[in-house]
Amino acid sequence: MKNCILIMISFLCISTYGAIEEPEEKVIATLPEGITVELVGLRNYSIRDLEQFKDGNYQWWRPDGTAMDESPDMSQGRTSVSDSYWFVIRFNKSNDYTCKAVAQLSNNLTVHPVNNKGKGFENDELRFFTLIFAKGQKQADIELGLAIGQWNVVENWSFWYPAAPDDSFFSSNDGVIMRCPEQKGSDVVAEITQTILDDATRLVAYDKKDILHKSQKSGGGTGAGISRYIHRFKNLNIQNIDHLEFQSRPYDYRITFKNVSLQIGQKTQVQVKIKKPGYLLPGEPLPNFDGINIDPARTSIQDKSLLVCFFDMEQRPSRNCILELSQKAQELKSKDIEIIAVQASKIEQEYLDNWAKENNMDFPIGIIKENQEQTLFNWDVKALPWLILTDKEHIVQTEGFSINELDNKIEK
Predict the structure, then answer these.
(1) What is the Cα–Cα distance from 315 to 251, expressed in whole angstroms?
(2) What superfamily in CATH does domain 292-411 come from?
(3) Quick one: CATH architecture of 153-249?
(4) Rounded CA gap, 45 and 47, in Å?
(5) Using CA atoms, how far apart are residues 393 and 412, in angstroms rounded to an integer?
(6) Higher-scoring residue by pLDDT: 92, 175
(7) Which of 84, 234, 264, 376 has the fewest CB atoms found within 10 Å of its own CB?
């Protein structure tokens, strides 16, 4: 299978908005498993932008900017945040897929099922998500992470009644804490704080008849390296719960819909790009350093191989990796290999600079300025520390190896 599948999708042009509509060209990503993910359309989601549709007849358009005759999602959702958009995607197969949406100003957003389907879409497997973009932006790239594999059990918590939220917490060695579930009306609600950010996760409950119940997850806030989610089990009595499981699975594919029109009538040529994590970078040019506060020009990198290291100095394995690289810096220079390091979590620049100076690190070290999730997404970073080695043309040769494998990777 090719490491990167690039699908160009062409569209027939219409001269003006309101002209006779040409046959519809669909924007579809087709995965090797035969699964298709179609970006059906989008609409404005901001109250300010929806003033012209006070009767609820929201105008949808296709990803290329042409108007849609029917609305795929009849929901009346809206927000006070300007430049927000409501998107709908369609799967050709109904299954237990997990999606997250990523864009410049929004990231790691769960993709939810559409419950109020429009005319002609009643039998389709539809999901929706919302994203925010920069003011006045006319087109954008929309990225989806898609997990389709088996769920892995991270933690299994036996439940006892009547444990209470104010005195019972369920902890884990894998960076997951659950505040004791509580009954709210006909639903059971639980709160999860987790450090697992790169994989798809879910909380499920098994009742005393061994029937699995899936929660509805909503965001509850994020911090440096942690996220909080609220899980709601609809129509479940807390006294019937036997145990709860926190589960995870990696995102198997990353799908990018490029040049999606954010204005109805604004014509664009949409592209679809599919990448499989673990095969994202090798053979491709190194991504640019957008969103990273770093100056690679500090070191002459022309006609030299690069060793890029994403790390977190607050984590011992990352610190050890960077310290070992510092000791090998001169040896690597003699082989025309330059080190560039990137701090993956937010810390004070002065703190990082002082630490680097104390440890005699003579190579550029930067920090991800913003949109941490998207930057790590773009670079295919799946763990920390994360090493990427290029050739002298800055084409990636290998990634995701340990510091102990470095000499062998260079030799190859």
Answers:
(1) 24
(2) Glutaredoxin (3.40.30.10)
(3) Sandwich (2.60)
(4) 7
(5) 16
(6) 92
(7) 234
